[in-house]
Amino acid sequence: MSDEIKIGIIICDRYSGCAGGKCLRALNNREGAFSIYKDKDVKLVGYTACGGCPGGNIEYAPEEMKKNGVDVIHLATGLVVGYPPCSRITRFQDFIREKYGLDVVVGTHPIPQNYYETHTALRTWESPKWKEIIQPTLADEETRLLYD
Ligand code: SF4
């Protein structure tokens, strides 16, 4: 049996044209939310967008990824840093866990520094809930600057 971890990525539909450059770079470098896979083999088995507000694709996309053996679904960093951030993140998390029995991690690549500065000024992430949500992708400033 392989120890390889199979992951799927679901991005915010506002960035539906995104080619996944930052997510894939972070995956290769094990940065941001992918730092939990340091020293582990990881394979990307699915990549899609949420389908637009209110996120209708969240209902079905995990099923397709499950057929490819997905272990963990990552909700992309765009859900956290967009203006405004997605208000349904925790609902998506709860739904995917409950319905499909899959692990869900919020975040992919590190938060880019320019988003970090704007959201800090806006006090977007001051609540305990948001502090917890951004934790996997917060990274240090040096790393955040690499994702601007
Ligand atoms: S804000 Fe949330 S529900 Fe709306 S498009 Fe983005 S991820 Fe989907």
Q: What are its keywords?
A:
148 residues; alpha/beta; Rossmann fold; four-stranded parallel beta sheet; 16% strand; binds iron/sulfur cluster
Summarize the model shown.
The chain is an alpha/beta fold and 148 residues long.
Textual characterization of the structure:
It is built from 7 helices and 4 strands. The protein is an alpha/beta fold. It has a single domain, classed as 3-Layer(aba) Sandwich (Rossmann fold). It has a 4-stranded parallel sheet. It is globular, with a radius of gyration of 14 Å. The chain starts with a strand and ends with a helix. The model has no long low-confidence stretch (mean pLDDT 97).
Mean of all residue-level pLDDT scores:
97
CATH fold-level assignment: Rossmann fold
CATH class: Alpha Beta
Principal-axis shape: globular
- Quickly count the helices: 7
Number of domains: 1
Range of helix content: 25-40%
Counting copies of identical and different chains, the oligomeric state is: single chain
Q: How are the strands of the largest sheet arranged? A: 2-1-3-4
Strand segment tally? 4
Rounded to an integer in angstroms, the radius of gyration calculated over CA atoms is 14 Å
Distance between the termini: 39 Å
Structural class by sheet pairing and helices: alpha/beta
Main beta-sheet annotation: 4 strands, parallel
The CATH architecture? 3-Layer(aba) Sandwich
